[in-house]
């Protein structure tokens, strides 16, 4: 048998020097950089406010089975927990910015993203580990 080197997957060409994706004009319906920054800061403020005021908070998506499991867990304990669906309404930029702010604040890019009494717990696995201890 002859050795055949693996074919490399096609990579996108590098961005030419001096061109930034942030400097490109916004597409129709997309916010410009200043507007995006305002929306992101508003989302960060909103996140901070929710975490401080809600005793229990789950950030989730409608298609996440672990989010449903975590929500059901709190229901079994008879403990109300506010659930925020990051993908509803579909295409809502405010929810998208809230998801970005959440990811940056917690360094967790997955859902569920759970807070109890203002403290970041993590996902469903961390919730179950904490409950078992």
Structure in words:
- By secondary structure, this protein is α+β, with helices and mostly antiparallel strands.
- It is built from 4 helices and 4 strands.
- The protein has helices at 33-53, 65-76, 93-106, 124-132; strands spanning 56-60, 82-85, 113-116, 119-122.
- It has a 4-stranded mixed beta sheet, sandwiched between helices.
- The longest helix is centred in the N-terminal third of the chain and has 21 residues, at 33-53.
- It starts with 32 loop residues before the first helix and ends with a helix.
Brief sketch in words of this structure:
The protein has 133 residues and is α+β, with helices and mostly antiparallel strands. The chain has helices spanning 33-53, 65-76, 93-106, 124-132, and strands at residues 56-60, 82-85, 113-116, 119-122.
**Spatial order of strands in the largest sheet:** 2-1-3-4
What is the H/E order?
HEHEHEEH
Helix content: 40-55%
Tally of strands: 4
How much of the sequence lies in strands comes to 5-15%
Number of helical segments with 4 or more residues: 4
What would you call the structural class? alpha+beta
Unreliable runs, pLDDT <50, ≥5 residues?
18-24
Task: Report the end-to-end length measured between terminal Cα atoms.
Answer: 56 Å
> What shape does the CA trace take?
globular
- C-alpha Rg, in Å? 20 Å
Profile the largest sheet: 4 strands, mixed
The residue-averaged pLDDT reads 84
């Amino acid at each position: 048998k002859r050795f055949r080197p693996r074919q490399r997957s096609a990579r996108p060409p590098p961005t030419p020097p001096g061109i930034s994706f942030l400097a490109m004009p916004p597409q129709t319906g997309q916010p410009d950089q200043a507007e995006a920054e305002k929306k992101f800061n508003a989302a960060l403020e909103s996140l901070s406010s929710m975490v401080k005021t809600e005793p229990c908070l789950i950030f989730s998506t409608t298609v996440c089975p672990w989010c449903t499991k975590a929500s059901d867990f709190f229901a079994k304990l008879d403990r109300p927990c506010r659930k925020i669906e990051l993908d509803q309404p579909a295409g809502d930029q405010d929810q998208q910015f809230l998801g970005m702010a959440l990811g940056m604040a917690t360094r967790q890019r997955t859902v569920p993203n759970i807070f109890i009494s203002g403290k970041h717990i993590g996902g469903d696995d961390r919730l179950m580990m904490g409950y078992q201890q």
